Amino acid sequence: MKVCMITGTFPPIKCGVGDYSNILCNYLSQVEEINLSVITTKGIDKNNKYKIYDIVKNWDNSELKKIINKINDINPDIVHIQYPTLAYKKNIMINMLPYFLHKKYKIITTIHEYSDNSTLGKLRIWPNIFLSDAIIVVDKHYISDIKKVKFLRKRDFYYVNIGSNIPKSNIDKKDRDVIRNEILKNNCNRILGYFGFINRTKGIESILYAINNLKEQNKLKTMFLIIGELKKDDEYHNSIINLINKLDLNDYIYITGYLKSQDVGKYINASDFMVLPFVNGLSSKNGSFLASIQEGKHIVTTMRNGRKVFNGLNITYLNSYDDIQTLKNIIELNQQEGIKNYKVNSDFKFSWENIVEKHMEIYRNIIKNKRKLL
């Protein structure tokens, strides 16, 4: 079975979908049944596991013919598009690509974002959905939202959860203590961790306001560990830096900067608990959540549309991302009693082996079935 994966990003380009695509391809390439090729952006990391064609400079109409020609050279059974990625930007070429392929090839599109997109952002995805033989969503609630569009209802949808892009750490107590001693200062004895790309959907301001409230009451004994980076050339990151300075919190914050994936788990493990106050609520596609639960950490996060996405002893839900008072109370309680972390239970089976098997079922399905009339 020949599969051509199309993704705008791949390591070393920093993008969650690119990391996901890389891990998925590494696992797919180990399946004897699969002959895998990847078309992606110029300048990415190469390997000897499968063929990588980094031929695309810009994902716009000027590159369309080049991509189609390469797909024709490969002549795959399936063209599998990962959408969106940072490299696509808002160009519609990737959305129109299935139109030029669907009469010759079986097409799958994996949708990593939908429900929280703007109306225009959703509209941009519709051609991919309409012209695909199968649509994979990483959040099962995308299916009901997409089906609100009448002419898209009869497409074949599959929910396949994502896995963690971060490998589980094997850190021992000695190395864990080294990291904790590196972070703890100002008589603090607890570490509140945050991991992930920092943008307006992550609610990081709420954490800053909560720890500031404790500082103003002379009750703060918790360091805020940001496992990530704040770039001075990023407008939103600058607003966070300015807020930290305004609240005079620099002595209570430790920023790791960009870390290699194999080091991220160590810092998550060294935290007492993780706070992930997603503005739009927790989703099964949130990689920072999966990386945290993988390390057995207690997670404070946000309900999605008033409901708990997962149930488990390791999760405390806020009603909304800006519930600063409740978050402050949780931090203070942890300082007094310590939040208990539990082993990961059976509700969190997000192994990559399971994800690959689900993909294989979909691949076999669409090859076996005749194309539905569009």
Automatic annotation (TrEMBL):
It comes from the Bacteria. Signal peptide: none annotated. Residues 175-277 form the Glycosyl transferase family domain. SUPFAM superfamilies: UDP-Glycosyltransferase/glycogen phosphorylase. This is Glycosyltransferase involved in cell wall biosynthesis.
